[in-house]
Amino acid sequence: MTKTTVLNVQGMTCGHCEMSVQEALDELDGVQGAKADRATGNVEVTYEEDKVSNDEFREAIEEVGYTVGS
Ligand code: 9UX
């Protein structure tokens, strides 16, 4: 089943930052789309819940240099 969640990500200060985070998430199997907003820090992720989960989102985002809040 498809789900949408919103993560709060610290450290995105420009458009390239948004793209980096979006691409890191898009690369994960099961992610259908990601939209980052540097103004709020919110990253909306649409994904297949049986394929991928929050831990992987966090890992992928931290790997490209940003911090995920709670
Ligand atoms: Mo430009 Mo966004 O260095 O970090 S990619 S501000």
UniProtKB/TrEMBL annotation:
Respond yes or no to whether keyword Calcium is given for this record: no
What is this protein identified as?
Answer: Copper chaperone CopZ
What's a Pfam family in this record? HMA
Which PANTHER family does the record associate with it? P-TYPE CATION-TRANSPORTING ATPASE
* CDD domains to which the protein is assigned, alphabetical: HMA
- Would I find Metal-binding among this entry's keywords? yes
**What species was this sequence derived from?**
Rubrobacter marinus
Record-annotated HMA domain positions: 3-69
For this UniProt record, the keywords arranged alphabetically read as follows: Metal-binding, Plasmid
Specify the domain of life of the species encoding this protein: Bacteria
Q: Which GO terms describe its molecular function?
A: metal ion binding
